[in-house]
Amino acid sequence: MIKLFRQVTLLEYLIKRYLFWILLATCIIAGIERTNLRTVRSVHPASLLQPEQTALDDQRMISFDMNEYHYELTPLFDYTLNGLIVSKFDYDVFNMYKYGRVFPSDLCMIWGHNMLNQAHLNKTVFFSQDCRSCSAQWSGSVDFKHRDLSNNHLVIKDPHIRKILNGLSRGDQVQIKGKLVNVYATLLEGNNDPAAPNGFEWKTSTVRTDTAAGACEVIYVEELKLLKKGNPFAHYLFIASFFCLVALSIHKVVIFIRELKKD
After folding, report:
1. Are residues 13 and 83 in the same domain?
2. 171: left (phi > 0), else alpha (psi -120 to 50), else beta?
3. What is the pLDDT of residue 79?
4. Within 10 A of 20 (CB to CB), how many other CB atoms are there?
5. Backbone angles phi, psi at 7, to 5 degrees
6. Exposed e or buried b for every residue in 196-221, given b needs 16+ CB within 10 A?
7. What gap in Å lies between CA 79 and CA 85, rounded to an integer?
8. In terms of domains, do 194 and 208 share one?
9. Using the 8-state DSSP alphabet, how is residue 174 labeled?
10. Which domain holds residue 207?
11. Burial (0-12, 13-18, 19+ Cβ within 10 Å), 169
12. What is the pLDDT at residue 171?
């Protein structure tokens, strides 16, 4: 009993002494692992399907004002896309102009043939994303179909959908429902940013076989659903360790301030 008591006491001492570093290491490792494509082996059946592009039931123009711009969206097709997020770039952070917040993220996704043979598990396959485009590179012989990969500009007006998007990361399998749209935007009167462009236009791709500039789909998102979390254990471990790390840091600061007041 005495030996056990001493072991527990020593363990408690070590935890108190090194808890911050344990939490920090856990947060970093879990943060990396939660977006690790090589561990995503379970394929949702919907991710094997080809995108559905169908004639519009509602052809009305979509108009709204947001972030000091007036937007006119011309819908071309109803569109449903299921697949795996292989890269996500958030333009809420990396963006010079307010209009970019209407297109908060680009999702680079694969589906169909590429999910059937799980191309993302191949250690020679890498995905990159920048400047509103994405690409796949590999070495050797890889059975990869470019037609089953796309970069998707998401036009989001609904704050609830934006909240779902914020919770997504690389490795998640998702379903996007909405419309393929051409976007035309004009600067509203009263804008005080002299560097802001007076207007801009984005056109969507309507085929899956094109490449390079203009090949991205511009989707007005009406529904966004998580089909399968990529690495759920690492994801929730990251969240837990992060908030514990924040709480511990605040606790240490409070104790430090109290000690200063005593002196």
Report:
1. no
2. left
3. 97
4. 14
5. -65, -45
6. beeeeebebbeebeeeeeebbbbbbb
7. 17
8. yes
9. E
10. 40-230
11. middle
12. 95
Is the domain of 90 the same as that of 176?
yes
How many domains in the chain?
A: 2
State which amino acid sits at residue 44.
H
Q: Are residues 65 and 131 in the same domain?
A: yes
pLDDT at 9: 67
Q: Do residue 141 and residue 218 come from a single domain?
A: yes
CA 88 to chain centre: 4
Integer-rounded Cα radius of gyration of the chain = 23
Quickly tell me which residue has 């972030």 as its tokens.
Answer: 67
Dmax over CA atoms of the chain, in Å, equals 79
| Side-chain half-sphere exposure of 201, counting CA atoms within 13 A | 3
Residues 235, 175 contacting (CB under 8 angstroms): no
Q: What is the mean pLDDT of each run of 10 residues along the chain (263 residues)?
A: 53 71 90 90 96 91 88 96 94 63 85 95 90 86 92 92 92 97 87 72 91 86 96 90 89 79 70
> What pLDDT does 176 receive?
98
Domain shared by 242 and 122, yes or no: no
Backbone region of residue 256 per phi and psi (left: phi > 0; alpha: psi in -120 to 50; beta: other values)? alpha
Please tell me the pTM assigned to this model.
Answer: 0.84
Q: Are strands 133-137 and 149-155 parallel, antiparallel or unpaired?
A: unpaired
Same domain, 106 and 6: no
Residues 216 and 127 placed together within one structural domain of the fold: yes
CB-based contacts of 110, cutoff 8 Å, min separation 6: 83, 84, 86, 119, 120, 136, 148, 149
